[in-house]
From TrEMBL, chain A:
<keyword id="KW-0813">Transport</keyword>
<comment type="similarity">
    <text>Belongs to the binding-protein-dependent transport system permease family.</text>
</comment>
<feature type="transmembrane region" description="Helical">
    <location>
        <begin position="101"/>
        <end position="122"/>
    </location>
</feature>
<dbReference type="InterPro" id="IPR045621">
    <property type="entry name" value="BPD_transp_1_N"/>
</dbReference>
<feature type="domain" description="ABC transmembrane type-1">
    <location>
        <begin position="95"/>
        <end position="328"/>
    </location>
</feature>
<feature type="transmembrane region" description="Helical">
    <location>
        <begin position="12"/>
        <end position="30"/>
    </location>
</feature>
<dbReference type="Pfam" id="PF19300">
    <property type="entry name" value="BPD_transp_1_N"/>
</dbReference>
From TrEMBL, chain B:
<keyword id="KW-1003">Cell membrane</keyword>
<dbReference type="GO" id="GO:0005524">
    <property type="term" value="F:ATP binding"/>
</dbReference>
<protein>
    <recommendedName>
        <fullName>ABC transporter domain-containing protein</fullName>
    </recommendedName>
</protein>
<keyword id="KW-0547">Nucleotide-binding</keyword>
<dbReference type="GO" id="GO:0005886">
    <property type="term" value="C:plasma membrane"/>
</dbReference>
<dbReference type="InterPro" id="IPR003593">
    <property type="entry name" value="AAA+_ATPase"/>
</dbReference>
<feature type="region of interest" description="Disordered">
    <location>
        <begin position="112"/>
        <end position="144"/>
    </location>
</feature>
UniProtKB/TrEMBL annotation, chain C:
<keyword id="KW-0813">Transport</keyword>
<dbReference type="InterPro" id="IPR025966">
    <property type="entry name" value="OppC_N"/>
</dbReference>
<protein>
    <submittedName>
        <fullName>Peptide ABC transporter permease</fullName>
    </submittedName>
</protein>
<feature type="transmembrane region" description="Helical">
    <location>
        <begin position="144"/>
        <end position="177"/>
    </location>
</feature>
<feature type="transmembrane region" description="Helical">
    <location>
        <begin position="106"/>
        <end position="132"/>
    </location>
</feature>
<keyword id="KW-1003">Cell membrane</keyword>
<dbReference type="GO" id="GO:0005886">
    <property type="term" value="C:plasma membrane"/>
</dbReference>
Length: 338, 278, 305
């Protein structure tokens, strides 16, 4: 187990190193001089030179790469040209908000997707199955930004059931200010007992969560269905049938667990995908997460900020894959490394 | 225990098995032989109503239940509890993520078995757990006789000469012979009266084959179980079966007492099969 | 159905639709019709795609108005007899723009899939056939690309390059090829061990010839299935990039761009946003349904690897 863990960690590190290099290369390709962007269009030659000096833009490329890696490792992710804050601090504020949204969406997707997949597998090729297949296919085919706009227009602007945008009612910051612990608003509000902000955040969460959850719910339902049908066609299902177990009980008591392995790895992949997909939703609902941060960084050609977002998301992706590989051994004893 | 008349199994318009007559009484062992694709496995599965997607006609009575007319609930009640199935590929027939003991306990609970038979009231009667009342009663019983359930399981496993420790294992952690003996232990634990075995030894080593055959033979002698074995292995059949049916392309070409069929085959196909023996 | 970030082959091949439900004789006739229903699901996708493709290709003849006929007097007309889908803020006919938008979307999808399949399959075949360190290097590189969610890397690239349709194609293709590389490498690796390949090698046939003659034809089916599954994802990603202003620019008709430009009008003039969005949904849906059907038909047993 330990050797497997070490090998898997080594692989992950290699990927991270590649990601850092690739990010660095792409950032060097960005048009426009970061020194100009930092010092402003009216900067004097001296100010420009100082800026170039500060970012080490005159050093040879490999020195820049080396410095970049060294800084990243020591926790210096650069300074945003746009907010003029350390990128790391910006990310520590924005990422938890994205996590909150995607976490809520995935929770919904798992709670809804797996039972729906079981239902479809149980009534395979009958009406419930057909309904689930069409619905899940629609859910993975819908453009998120459009769904976000549609829900926002109908349920927020027109019907007024939910707030239009934002993470919580900002006037609450003065009446019941929130103490930050994790930077995840829901969690912080919960542990500090800040009920006004908690309820406000939950109300703001509903619509964006539904939109972000559409894709994961669809793929989880499809995957669960497919894996269950596959399992129910295996030899062991025949024995279970011969032992007198009914179809529902074969699916939920014997087939679901081996089927959950692939579903779990799907969830990790979908998690990373949903964070980026959430960018579009954050833009529509003005959610203060990574997406909004990335959007403003892109429009101002803020390379350190964009590099920071990219690295963070790639890290999350690598980590999610790692966790899943290790978790899979717990669910399915066959893949448990000896 | 098994009574079959004019059984016909069709997939669409293709007839895959036709059996005019097949009877297996308590303590008897009947074998169906033939090469793969001869319809012998289909015949076996149709006795439990497990032929998926097939049209089955005729008269099939197993343990007094008219299989072809039975409701799904009735079928589920005889499956396992009265008629056990032993499949060819030993490990694939066991759910990979379920410990053997868990599978056995679930099966016992499903059929409402909570303790050893004989002493106390026989609870082997089918219990579907439909009403809230009966479910409550069952869970109470289950708790009261936790040790009883455990004892049934250990005794069944020991009856097939397995270490009870095996109940804590997963299917991939045991050998093929152990898996096959565990499948038989399931039948014992559930108190099955009939065992249907589909190529029970063909995936096993020769020495392990002998063990499994020994266990099956013992069950029949000591507990009076009815055995219906499907096999292409004439050597196995000659050691255990009382009567033999020879099937080819879905038709029964010859049947009769094992001694007669195997020593004085009347059908050319049977002769062919026998000549293929080493 | 595989937008960026999902591995090829998810969700996995649905087993053939032979029924395993409770076997009651009365259900038999119904069960025989089931494969037909499954086919019908995929056939619906195929028909939808033919309709979408025909609408896009024939846009110049089908469209009731010229592509960018600006008519400020008739801006923001609600759908009616003159303008079935209404008009936008510049008075352009929304139906016309949706039809022409299909050309852009399909062009992007076809280009992306062709480029990334060409690059990915070439690298994958080489990796799978050669094995050893060659395979290791190529696979580690694809791992790195796979660690970037496609939309994010596309965002970065779209920023580096000037916003345009070509940019969208390049940006998405860069993130898409690794999937084909990984898939074809694993298939090619198993093909490379087959006897006829060994035989060719023993006869001294050069490796490139073996790859093209023997490995490629025998590894291409899963890739083709994957391509059909991916088309929907490409269309969604392209629309998202255009929605963010990083893709097609005015006056090109593009669905994502149309949603972007109309989004402030959603409450008052729903048709400006609704129809282009529906067009994206229907097209992606059609490809996803067809892709799933093809996979079930051609390759029912393939599960995520």
């Amino acid at each position: 187990m330990l050797r497997y863990l070490i090998r898997r960690l080594g692989q992950a590190l290699l990927v991270v190193a590649g990601v850092v290099m690739l990010t660095f290369v792409v950032m060097r390709l960005v048009p426009g001089d970061p020194a100009v962007a930092f010092a402003g269009p009216k900067a004097t030659p001296e100010q420009l030179a100082a800026a170039r000096e500060r970012f080490g833009l005159d050093d040879p490329l490999w020195v820049q790469l080396w410095n970049y890696v060294r800084d990243l490792v020591t926790g210096d992710w650069g300074t945003s040209l746009h907010t003029r804050q350390p990128v790391r601090d910006d990310l520590l504020l924005a990422f938890p908000a994205s996590l909150e949204l995607v976490g809520a969406a995935l929770l919904l997707a798992i709670v809804a997707g797996i039972p729906v997949g079981v239902l479809a597998a149980r009534y395979k090729t009958k009406f419930p199955d057909f309904g689930v297949r069409v619905a899940s296919m629609l859910a993975v085919s819908v453009p998120v930004f459009w769904l976000a706009l549609a829900l926002q227009t109908v349920f927020a602007s027109n019907l007024g059931w939910f707030p239009v945008a934002g993470e919580y009612d900002s006037s609450l910051d003065t009446t019941s200010p929130l103490t930050l612990w994790t930077n995840i608003t829901v969690v912080d509000a919960l542990i500090t007992g800040n009920w006004p902000i908690l309820t406000s955040t939950l109300r703001h969460l509903v619509l964006p969560t539904l939109v972000v959850a559409a894709y994961p719910t669809g793929v989880i339902a499809q995957m669960t269905r497919a894996m269950l049908i596959e399992e129910a066609g295996q030899d062991h299902a025949r024995l279970e049938r011969a032992l007198g177990f009914g179809e529902t009980s074969i699916l939920t008591r014997f087939a679901l667990r081996p089927a959950l392995g692939p579903v779990l790895s799907l969830i990790a992949l979908v998690f990373a995908y949903s964070i980026v997909n959430g960018f579009l939703v954050e833009a529509v609902f003005n959610w203060p997460g990574l997406g909004r941060y990335a959007a403003s960084a892109i429009s101002s050609l803020d390379t350190p900020a964009i590099a920071g977002v990219t690295l963070l998301v790639a890290l999350v992706y690598v980590l999610a894959n790692l966790v899943v590989d290790l978790l899979q051994g717990l669910i399915d004893p066959r893949v448990r490394p000896q | 225990m098994i009574e079959v008349r004019d059984l016909q199994v069709r997939y669409g318009t293709r007839v895959v098995a036709r059996v005019p007559e097949l009877d297996v009484g308590a303590g008897e062992c009947v074998a169906i032989v033939g090469e793969s694709g001869s319809g012998k496995s289909t015949t076996l599965l149709s006795l439990l109503g497990l032929t998926e997607g097939a049209d089955v006609s005729g008269h099939v009575s197993v343990c007094g239940v008219e299989v072809l007319q039975a409701s799904p609930q009735q079928l589920r009640r005889i499956r396992g509890a009265r008629v056990a199935l032993v499949l060819q590929s030993p490990q694939a027939a066991l759910s990979p993520t379920t410990r053997l003991g868990t599978l056995m306990r679930r099966a016992l609970e499903l059929h409402g078995i909570t303790g050893p038979r004989g002493g106390g009231p026989e609870t082997g009667g089918p219990e579907t757990g439909g009403s809230a009342g009966s479910r409550k009663e069952r869970s109470w019983k289950g708790r009261a006789s936790k040790g009883g359930l455990e004892r049934v399981m250990v005794e069944a496993v020991e009856a097939v000469m397995l270490d009870p420790e095996i109940l804590r294992r997963y299917p991939h952690e045991i050998s093929g012979g152990q898996a096959q003996r565990f499948a038989i232990a399931l039948a014992i634990a559930l108190g099955a009266e009939v065992i249907l075995a589909d190529e029970p030894t063909s995936a096993l080593d020769v020495t392990v084959q002998a063990e499994v055959v020994g266990v099956l033979h013992g069950l029949r002698e000591e507990r009076g179980l009815a055995l219906l074995i499907v096999s292409h292995d004439l050597a196995l059949v000659s050691t255990i079966a009382d009567r033999v049916l020879v099937m080819k392309d879905g038709e029964v070409v010859e049947s009769g007492p094992a001694a007669d069929v195997l020593t004085r085959p009347s059908h050319p196909y049977t002769r062919e099969l026998l000549e293929a023996l080493p | 159905m595989t937008p960026p970030g999902t591995p090829p082959g998810t969700p996995p091949g649905t087993p053939p639709e032979a029924s395993l439900s409770e076997a009651g004789p009365s259900e038999a006739p119904l069960r025989r019709t089931l494969p037909k229903i499954t086919d019908r699901f995929a056939a619906t996708g195929a028909v939808l795609i033919v309709v979408v493709a025909a609408a896009a290709l024939l846009a110049p003849w089908l469209a009731p108005y010229p592509e960018d006929a600006v008519d400020p007097v008739n801006a923001l007309l609600a759908p009616g007899a003159e303008h079935w889908f209404g008009t936008d803020q510049a008075g352009r006919d929304v139906l016309t723009r949706v039809l022409y938008g299909g050309r852009t979307s399909l062009f992007i999808a076809v280009s992306v899939l062709a480029v990334s399949a060409a690059v990915g399959v070439t690298l994958g075949l080489v990796a799978g056939y050669a094995g050893g360190w060659v395979r290791d290097v190529i696979m580690r590189v694809t791992d790195v690309f796979l660690a970037f969610p496609a939309l994010l890397l596309s965002l970065m690239l779209a920023m580096v390059l000037q916003p345009s349709v070509t940019t969208v194609i390049v940006a998405i293709a860069v993130t898409w090829w690794p999937w084909y590389a990984r898939l074809s490498a694993s298939v090619a690796a198993s093909v490379a061990t087959r006897p006829y390949v060994d035989a060719a090698r023993c006869l001294g046939v050069p490796a490139p010839v073996i790859i093209v003659r023997h490995v490629l034809p025998n590894s291409i089916t899963p890739v083709l299935v994957q391509i059909s599954l991916d088309a929907g994802g490409v269309i969604l990603t392209a629309a998202a990039l255009s929605y963010l202003g990083l893709g097609a620019q005015e006056p090109t008709a593009e669905w994502g761009l149309m949603v972007d430009q109309g989004q402030t009008l959603f409450t008052t003039n729903w048709w400006v946003v609704t129809f282009p969005g529906l067009a994206i949904l229907v097209t992606a849906f059609a490809f996803n349904v067809l892709g799933e059907g093809l996979r079930n038909a051609l390759d029912p047993r393939r599960v995520v690897r």
